Amino acid sequence: MRLGGVDEWFGGWLKVTEDVAQKIDALGFTGIGLHYPGDPMEQSLDEALRTKALLDAHHIDIVQFWGGYPCIICPDEDARREGVRIGRNIVQRAAELGAQVAGIRPTSLHPTSQWGPHPLNYAPETEDRLVRSLSEMAEACEIYQVPITLEVHVTTTLRDAETIRRLIDRTGSSWIKVNADLVNFVSDFHAAYHTTELINHVFDVLGPYILTAHLKDVVVDAPLVVHISESRPGTGLLDWDTLFRRFEALLPDGYALIEHLTDYNEVTKARDFVVGKLNALDIPIRQ
Length: 287
Known about the structure:
It is a single chain. By secondary structure, the chain is of the alpha/beta class. The protein has one domain: Alpha-Beta Barrel (TIM Barrel). The chain contains nine helices and ten strands. The protein has an eight-stranded parallel β-barrel with strand order 1-2-3-4-5-6-7-10, surrounded by five helices. Strands 8-9 form a two-stranded antiparallel ribbon. Strand 4 (101-104), helix 4 and strand 5 form a beta-alpha-beta unit. The longest helix is centred in the middle third of the chain and has 21 residues, at 124-144.
């Protein structure tokens, strides 16, 4: 497998500098996931390519490229179309930058959070709107020859492996794939305490669709009623042996990215754990 990270610790696409590129390189990462804070076409291609050149100089792949957009599952058709328009722009810019995938999230009907829970996120009509939006974005994938990887979470329409597979199949597009973020599938204490079962199930159901993975851990907290939180890799309940073995068997050249750490020292600790675990499992880290 190949190892990389996500950009939270330095602030995203617009914060890439020579110093940042050197720090990514020093971590031993050969790839990075990057967020643009809106429609990436707001930035000129020339300026975007200058950022890419900084990464290229250090042989750092752009693995996942994201942008920000309005809700693509909302009943307001004008808002949905605007979300799709920007989603198609993300696909185009990802292709122009040589990114391996364009990252797309399903959004939410929650009033303030695109990852927030809402009962209608799971409604049949919401699924229909998501299928329509993804199908329209996939048209751009065909034009620009770069796939989408879906970001998934139990709070969203993309809530479990079976639903994700069914909705991708409904689009009829081979360009729509999945980012395997296993912690985002943890919906209750049973799943948190039985991550081996969860990991195997996700890979069994979604294996043909997985292109990338995110690495983080999961912990359960004491306050009532139910509190399940992310944590740094190696500090929680996730069965890393099973995750790494399944990912390596499926995608030996695929990227797994350490995610959601905002401090460089924490990224370093996570890197040390991941590298140590891969070495113990005799799984090579490919360059």
